[in-house]
Every structure is written in structure tokens, then in C-alpha cells.
């Protein structure tokens, strides 16, 4: 326990406390400065009155500091609560991310399984296609005798279709040419209209300018 004699406003006081001598001197000097500050502002005050006012001022500072501390403590607790909530949200996001990763891995595995199944089906289809081609060749060989009689009719039908297709192609090319010419004419007409609009606007501006130039003379004539 520390013990020290301090001087406050010219009076010695013996202080004892758990704190060390340096701290007790610091507190005493602080109080002494407060008392002297009050006396410097009003030298008519007694030592007792100045000491009482100093005690009131110091108490006021203490309460304000205490209030500020409580406010800071409240803000700290609020921030701590918000921090805990953010941590919880982060944990939820990380957990959801892990679940999505697991779901993605499951989907990728399902895709790989489907690819393997597709390859297996393609192998089966290839085998079936080869079998069908083999059977088709056999059927063609069996039907060649009957089909020879119909080849001539089919050839004539194919020739007629080719002629009709060629005619349609020519008509289509002709329509494209006409459409191109119409687009060109429309574009030319558009520019002509824009040119006429510009000339009309220029003429209106010119007319307004001429009227403004003549207006003073017209007013002079009216005054006469």
C-alpha cells in the first residue's frame, strides 16, 4: 500500500492507497491544478469553495467519461452481436457452398454415368445398324428383279422434279433482283425526302431572316 504527502492549494494531505506513489502524486497534482484554475477565474472564492467547485467539476468529468464508457460499451456489445451474426451467416454460406459442391459432384457423377450409358447404347445401336444394313442388302438383292420395271417411271418423275426445281430457283433469283432494286429506290427516295426537308427548312430560315430585316421599316411606316 502506497503512502505519500501531497500539497493541494497550499495544504498538505497524507494519502494512502493501493496505488503507487507516482499515481497518487499525479491525482493530487490534477486536483491542485483544478482548484488553482477556479481561483484564477474568481480570486474572491475561499479555499473551501474553490475545492468544492473543483470536486464538482471533477465529478462532472467522471460522470461524462463514465457515460462515454457506457456508450462505447453498448456500441461494442452491438458490434459484437453483429459480428456474431455475420459469423453465423458466413458459416451458413460456407455450409451451403459445401452442399452445392456435393450436389455438383453428384451431378457430374450422374453425367459420367450417362456418358457411359450413351457409349453402351451407341455400341448396341451400331450392332443393330450393321444387322439392319445386312438385312437391307439382302432385301435389295431379292427385289432387284421387281424394281427394274419401275426404274424408268422413277427416272421420269425425277427429271420432272428437277425441271420444276430449276424453274423455282430462277423465279427466286428474279424476285431477289427485284427486291434489291426496290430497296435501292426506297433508299434513294429517303435521301431525296431528307434533301427536300433541308431545303424547306433553309427557306423558312431565310424567310424569317428577311422578315426580321424588314420589320423596322414596317414599324416606321406604321408610325407615319
What does it look like?
The chain has a domain of 78 residues. Helices cover 88% and strands 6% of the residues. The protein is elongated and about 140 Å long. The chain contains two helices and two strands. With 224 residues, it is mainly α.
Query: What is the beta-strand fraction?
Result: 5-15%
In N-to-C order, the SSE pattern is EEHH
- Mean pLDDT score, rounded? 78
If helices are DSSP runs of H or I spanning 4 or more residues, what is the number of helices?
A: 2
- Taken from the alpha-carbon principal axes, the silhouette is elongated
Biggest beta-sheet profile: 2 strands, antiparallel
Give the termini separation: 117 Å
Order of neighbouring strands in the sheet with most strands: 1-2
Number of strands: 2
* Low-pLDDT segments, ≥5 res: 217-224
Roughly what percent helix?
A: over 70%
Structural class: mainly alpha
Radius of gyration: 54 Å
Amino acid at each position: 500500500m502506497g503512502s505519500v504527502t501531497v500539497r493541494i492549494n497550499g495544504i498538505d494531505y497524507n494519502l494512502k492507497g493501493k496505488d503507487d506513489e507516482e499515481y497518487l502524486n499525479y491525482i493530487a497534482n490534477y486536483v491542485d491544478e483544478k482548484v488553482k484554475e477556479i481561483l484564477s477565474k474568481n480570486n474572491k472564492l475561499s479555499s473551501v469553495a474553490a475545492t468544492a467547485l473543483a470536486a464538482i467539476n471533477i465529478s462532472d468529468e467522471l460522470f461524462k467519461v463514465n457515460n462515454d464508457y457506457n456508450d462505447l460499451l453498448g456500441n461494442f456489445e452491438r458490434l459484437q452481436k453483429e459480428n456474431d451474426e455475420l459469423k453465423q451467416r458466413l458459416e451458413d454460406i460456407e455450409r451451403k457452398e459445401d452442399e452445392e459442391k456435393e450436389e455438383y459432384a453428384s451431378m457430374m457423377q450422374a453425367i459420367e454415368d450417362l456418358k457411359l450409358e450413351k457409349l453402351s447404347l451407341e455400341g448396341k445401336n451400331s450392332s443393330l445398324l450393321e444387322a439392319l444394313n445386312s438385312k437391307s442388302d439382302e432385301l435389295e438383292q431379292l427385289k432387284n428383279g421387281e424394281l427394274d420395271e419401275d426404274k424408268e417411271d422413277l427416272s421420269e418423275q425425277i427429271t420432272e422434279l428437277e425441271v420444276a426445281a430449276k424453274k423455282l430457283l430462277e423465279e427466286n433469283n428474279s424476285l431477289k433482283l427485284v427486291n434489291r432494286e426496290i430497296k435501292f429506290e426506297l433508299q434513294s427516295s429517303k435521301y431525296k425526302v431528307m434533301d427536300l426537308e433541308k431545303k424547306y427548312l433553309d427557306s423558312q430560315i431565310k424567310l424569317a431572316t428577311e422578315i426580321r430585316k424588314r420589320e423596322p421599316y414596317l414599324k416606321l411606316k406604321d408610325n407615319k
